[in-house]
Amino acid sequence: MEIWVDADACPKVIKEILFRAAERARVSLILVANQPLRTPSSPFVKAVRVSGGFDAADNTIARQLQPGDLVITADIPLAAQVIERGGHVLDPRGEFYTKDNIRERLAVRNLLQELRSGGVDVGGPSSLTRSERHAFANQLDRFLTKYGSA
Fold first, then answer.
1. What angle do CA 28, 34, 40 make, to 5 degrees?
2. pTM
3. Cα–Cα distance between 129 and 21 in angstroms, integer?
4. Would you give per-residue pLDDT tens digits along the chain (150 residues)?
5. Is residue 143 within 8 Å of residue 90, measured between CB atoms?
6. What does the alpha-carbon distance between residue 52 and residue 38 come to, in Å, rounded to a whole number?
7. Do residues 141 and 21 lie in contact, with contact meaning Cβ atoms separated by under 8 Å?
8. Alpha-carbon distance values, 114 to 117, 118, 122 (Å)
9. CA 90 – CA 146 distance, rounded (Å)
10. Taking a C-beta distance cutoff of 8 angstroms, is the pair 107, 101 a contact?
């Protein structure tokens, strides 16, 4: 099992939680981005830089993940691809996307995208709260306890 991170939009505080968790659980953590990333020196942490093309990081993750891998992303279309391929998806706010909730998330995302393209200001995501950071860390710990290194 590996942990893949859609790292371009992943908050720094979430990356820090992931770095510590990878060391503690001795699990491979792969951050994928189209810009250089700072990562700690660790045999468990790797950064992969992809071209700057549209969805290049998402496509790399979707192509390389294996069933059972965990992907950290807030990108709903990527989450849907990961679930379809047998992976697990955890949002940086601490919510797992599943077969049961991903269709609804895609529908809401598509509706908001239509509203935006029609000129409606629907706002963006709020700042990450302390409780969301704790929720993320707790969900990650539960996942690693259940599926972590053998």
1. 40
2. 0.86
3. 20
4. 999 999 988 999 999 999 999 999 999 999 999 999 999 999 999 999 998 777 899 999 999 999 999 999 999 999 999 999 999 999 999 999 999 888 877 867 666 677 667 777 766 677 889 999 999 999 999 999 998 754
5. yes
6. 18
7. yes
8. 5, 6, 10
9. 14
10. no
